[in-house]
Amino acid sequence: xxxxxxxxxxxxxxxxxxxxxxxxxxGGDRRNDPYATNQYIxxxxxxxxxxxxxxxxxxxAQALKIAENLELDLVEISPTxxxxxxxxxxxxxxxYQQKKRQKEQKQKAAKVVVKEIRFGPQTxxxxxxxxxxxxxxFLKEGSKVKAYVFFRGRSILFKEQGEVLLLxxxxxxxxxxxxxxxxxxxxxxxxxxxxxxxxxxxxxxxAKSQKPxxxxxxxxxxxxxxxxxxxxx
Length: 233
Known about the structure:
By secondary structure, the protein is α/β, with parallel strands linked by helices. Helices cover 28% and strands 22% of the residues.
């Protein structure tokens, strides 16, 4: 029995190899891709930036050719500009740098700690000084301080006295903190917000400052000092 010839036709030639950074499956689901790259850029002309390229406005075909000759990607970094701005760069390296920058920004934007200090409208000097020392410590460690006067019942009549107390408090802390919010009355509370002037010292810096310094070595005694004093036997 003879085998029937296979008339399935010729297989399609493989497409061009993806340029660096494209990877496999770039033509598939690109919903999570933050930037348009290479052949997915739809603009007719683009403003080209990047290293080792002559910056300027190019037709998209010429910009793609420049990126291909450098074995890099054409990345649309500002699609809303006229014309869109594209950078010639290794796309994977570009994404890595973006993620690294975002991580550094998150680390810098650390959570701000707010410490609260409560006063009464007729706080005496002893209690005031005690809480003032606490506030100084909070500001030195980098925390914000929210001080408030709580009015009970008829003590709301002394709201002006409470405002004077909070302003005095801010004035006594002016070397460590700055006023972010002036005294504001909210219900039965009048509060003021202070932010530290300086960033808290790092642990390494504290350790260095607390490390005792080496004492300077004393100069050697002169040879004459070892001789016996005149008159001694």
